Amino acid sequence: MNAFPARKQDEEERNTPEVEAAFEAVPEGQIAEILDGELHVQPRPRSTHSLAATQLTSSLGPFRPRGDGPGGWVILYEPELHLGPRPDKLVPDLAGWRRARMPELPDVPALTLPPDWVCEVISPSTQAIDRGKKMRMYRREGVEYLWFVDPAAQMVEMFRLVNERWSHLDTYEGDIRARLEPFEAIEIDIGVLWAR
After folding, report:
1. Angle at the Cα of 179 (from 194 to 162), degrees rounded to 5?
2. Does a structural domain hold residue 37?
3. Residue 182 falls within a domain, yes or no?
4. pLDDT of residue 102 exceeding 60
5. Confidence label for 66 from pLDDT (cuts 50, 70 and 90)
């Protein structure tokens, strides 16, 4: 049984059968998302994109439930999220849930509980969608924190949802160490995200 059941939907709000069929037919080597009822397909990310996501996942290791760090989070790489009434089907680069909201990770192909934190690694082919439709969807679903990591610009931008609007917290660039909300319990080496 899914610990986070899908929301009830009216038939006219659902994605069309054609869009759902096209979503299911996308080959494994690509990333498929349904945003506002439209299918979006991207190739697998470039190596610098993957490096930034991998290094950030490693940097956030102390927030996993075991070990000597602060713990308290479930952090997943490229989880499939089904959010909203259609539903929109999103694949953020990283997403995190506080353990208080997700005590156990359900064994399901897609999660319907909105994350507390999302990180999108920016690439030229996805930047408009990440900063446009997906940013609005994360706001609609009440995601508290959103980060954009841009490997080309070597920059991390952080936003927090305040009164249903995104508030820009800060921007860090280059080779520095910083405490980034909501993971300010530790210092993160920003430069390691770009190190090759």
Report:
1. 110
2. no
3. yes
4. yes
5. low
Give which of 91, 92, 96 is closest to 71, Cα–Cα.
96
Whether residue 76 is predicted with pLDDT greater than 70 in this model: the reply is: yes
Each residue's pLDDT tens digit, 82-99: 999 889 999 999 999 999
Mean pLDDT of all residues in 9-30: 79
CATH number of 122's domain? 3.90.1570.10
Beta bridge partners of 41: 32
In which domain, by residue range, is 114 found? Answer: 45-193
Exposed, middle or buried, 52 (CB in 10 Å: 0-12/13-18/19+)?
A: buried
pTM to 2 decimal places: 0.83
> CA–CA separation, 55 vs 38, rounded Å?
31
- Beta carbons within 8 Å of 51's beta carbon, 6+ residues apart: 151, 193, 194, 195, 196
| 158: CB partners within 8 A, 6+ apart | 145, 146, 147, 168, 169, 170, 171, 180, 181
Parallel/antiparallel/unpaired status of strands 117-121 and 145-150:
parallel
Contacts of 148 (CB under 8 A, 6+ apart): 119, 120, 121, 122, 130, 131, 156, 157, 159
In angstroms, the CA 52 to CA 111 distance is 24
Percent of the chain with pLDDT over 70: 89
